[in-house]
Write a structure and sequence with these properties.
This protein is an alpha/beta fold. It has a single domain, classed as NAD(P)-binding Rossmann-like Domain (Rossmann fold). Strands 3-2-1-4 form a four-stranded parallel β-sheet, sandwiched between helices. Helix 1 links the parallel strand 1 and strand 2. The protein is globular, with a radius of gyration of 14 Å. The protein starts with 14 loop residues before the first strand and ends in a 15-residue tail after the last strand.
Length: about 100
């Protein structure tokens, strides 16, 4: 069973990795975690987007290149994390990206 995080017991030593951290939902999750004092890794297929997406925040997440379809990229993204959030989503099928894959 997953342990819930206690907002009164937060510090920057607690690392949370957010997959899809630059997406519609993920960026909101990352911002909230940063506001609560977490160290956040924004795992994305496009890590260069992290800077522009979070340029207005007081603290920046760590940008990590990761693709949930590439198992070798996941291990380094989650290493040392106390929690992992999956905010990866596909809103429309486009090209090779389908709801089946």
């Amino acid at each position: 069973m997953a342990r819930q995080m206690d907002p009164d017991d937060l510090n920057t030593e607690r690392i949370v990795t957010v997959f899809g951290g630059t997406g519609f939902l993920g960026r909101r999750i990352v911002k909230r975690l940063l506001e609560r004092g977490f160290t956040v890794r924004a795992a994305s297929r496009h890590p260069a987007r992290v800077g522009p997406v979070f340029s207005s925040t007081a603290r920046m997440p760590e940008a990590v290149a990761a693709d949930i379809l590439d198992a070798s990229s996941i291990g380094s993204a989650v290493a040392g994390s106390q929690a992992i959030v999956n905010a990866v989503s596909l809103y429309i099928e486009q090209g090779a990206q389908t709801f089946e894959r």
